[in-house]
Amino acid sequence: AVGKTSLVLALVSEEFPNIVSAIIQLLFEVKLPVPPKAEEITIPADITPERVPTQIVDFSMSEQTEDQLVSEIRQANVVCVVYSLIDPGSVDSVSSHWLPLLRKHRQADKPVPVVLVGNKSDASERSQLPTVLKVMNSYPEVETCIECSAKLLHNLSETFWFAQKAVLYPTFQLYRPDDKELTVQCRTALTRIFRICDLDNDGYMNDRELELFQRRCFRVPLNPQSLEEVKQAVKRRSPEGVLPQGLTLKGFLQLHQMFVQKGRHETTWAVLRRFGYDNDLRLCVRAPPLRVSQGCSAELSYSAWHFLSTLFDRHDCDRDGCLSPTELQSLFACCPMTPAHAPNCTETNALGWITRSGFLSQWVLLTYLEPSRALELLVCLGYTYEFENPLSAVQVTRERRLDLDKRQTSRTVFLVKVMGAKKVGKTCFLQGLLGRNLQYICTLNRTQTPVSFTCAPVSVYGQERHLILEEVDHSRAEQLSPAELHECDAAALLYDITDPDSFKFIAHLYLNLLRPNKIPAVLVGTKSDQHETPQYYPLSADEFCAKYRLGIKPLKFTCLDRVSTDAYEKVAAAANYPHLKGLPLSHNDYTWKLGLAATVLAGFGFVAFRHVISR
């Protein structure tokens, strides 16, 4: 009786059903009343404002049961509750029956948006909006209300547009009508967005940042006059929202509150979705699938390197080249999935604050080990605000096998497995890469932060490379599979020169594991500050190196006082140029020289880029 079916049929035919029935009755002398229920109707996407297909489902109490109604409610994205403007009882039933029923049968405490539709405005002399607005304030799931007339075809398309809008741009998650404020979830999301768009991290969005925000979110420029009008509108509502430096966070939130209050919540939703939020204001940061085939590796691209370098500089407020705990917290404030800080893995200062080099190395390590997680974190931090495609942050190298065939590589990150018997100094060797001596290593809190990996830049023939050292426990070393071995670029085999039993462990590893799998290896004698003891092995360390072409003799390493970088540079060189393994550097053999020169030239551009960034 309220005209639900008439609304649906009038929308589709653009004619009131009773008029059509009257004409047919006059011509053919048959009575065609309005049916109690319209058939399901699908409106194609190409004729709707938002270009989404819309299915309209009518309901009739005379033909359907309450169970069928509940089933339809649970499948619906939005419900239009229709009442008659000429029937006070139907107006009262909106709050006394229909809205409580919808709440009772909603799924998992997730309210379905509701549009209240007052029909038969052509027959009513008085609007019911004042009464309905009170109902809206009591039921936040009610998105809007509208009065229409199926007979006069008044506000029909608007009614169904509001229904679409309630699904695509719901206000329930954005705004609390009872206290006229943005919801906590909305404020949190917009605060994160403000921090990302505040490119200089000064707490304000200046004109340049606002113009960039407009282009990135809406694909259209913002002319100076419109920008000034926006700022003045905010200032009238909130004088503290606009200061000479620019739009404050308070002003940014006020601007979006004004959008919602004026019925332009689609503008706020456009911003939220641009930064990865779904309809429940959850941040969806799942990166596109990234495939790293066996034998390949993932590295940061130029754009990601630039983004992270700029991000560090933006939050290094005191310009001391380190991030204090407060500065680090500020950097990750817009990231709900903050990674655990691992000071034992990359370079820090004496206070344990991560340095610029350590910060970038941590990202190099994460990208190498977990490229998908690195992508997700970069998206959280706002990478896609500057570079639209998240996959542009990571580049996948070609297979190591091809590098060996070509005798050159464009890779800049190398993984070296550090192996040796128990207590030969593997942990010290890993920490030595970060410039830490034995005294410092003894202070490390190994119960809180893992030390399986360290990562730092090293120089290889004048080029910067990132070296990742992975400590392999002595009990697991002999069980490494060929697949695990081929994940690395080289192995550092450590033995204690003061322990006569330690060399045979790495000799056995090399002969039975590394040599058959053609893994480049470098022998390192640790604790070289002490007196060397002859090893219980048929060959001396020097003779072993000479026989298997592993260099003239083992490298010497100590971290008792000052750590030398020489051992790490040679280990990195072995990983960078595996085809030179065991080749004598004679004046008559030019093959290694040509390969080295080609690789140096290939990497020159990348080194120059990093040099510019570091400056």
UniProtKB/TrEMBL annotation:
Transmembrane segments: none annotated. The keyword Nucleus does not apply. Signal peptide: none annotated. Its EC number is 3.6.5.-. Its main location: mitochondrion. GO terms for biological process: mitochondrion organization; small GTPase-mediated signal transduction. One of its GO terms (cellular component) is mitochondrial outer membrane. Keywords: Calcium, GTP-binding, Hydrolase, Membrane, Metal-binding, Mitochondrion, Mitochondrion outer membrane, Nucleotide-binding, Repeat, Transmembrane, Transmembrane helix. Coiled coil: none annotated. Pfam families: EF_assoc_1 (PF08355), EF_assoc_2 (PF08356), Ras (PF00071). It is a single-pass type IV membrane protein. It comes from the Eukaryota. InterPro entries: EF-hand-dom_pair, EF_Hand_1_Ca_BS, EF_hand_assoc_1, EF_hand_assoc_2, Miro, MIRO_dom, P-loop_NTPase, Small_GTPase. Residues 1-169 form the Miro domain. The keyword Membrane applies. It is found in: Mitochondrion outer membrane. GO terms for molecular function: calcium ion binding; GTP binding; GTPase activity. Belongs to the mitochondrial Rho GTPase family. Mitochondrial GTPase involved in mitochondrial trafficking. Probably involved in control of anterograde transport of mitochondria and their subcellular distribution. This is Mitochondrial Rho GTPase.
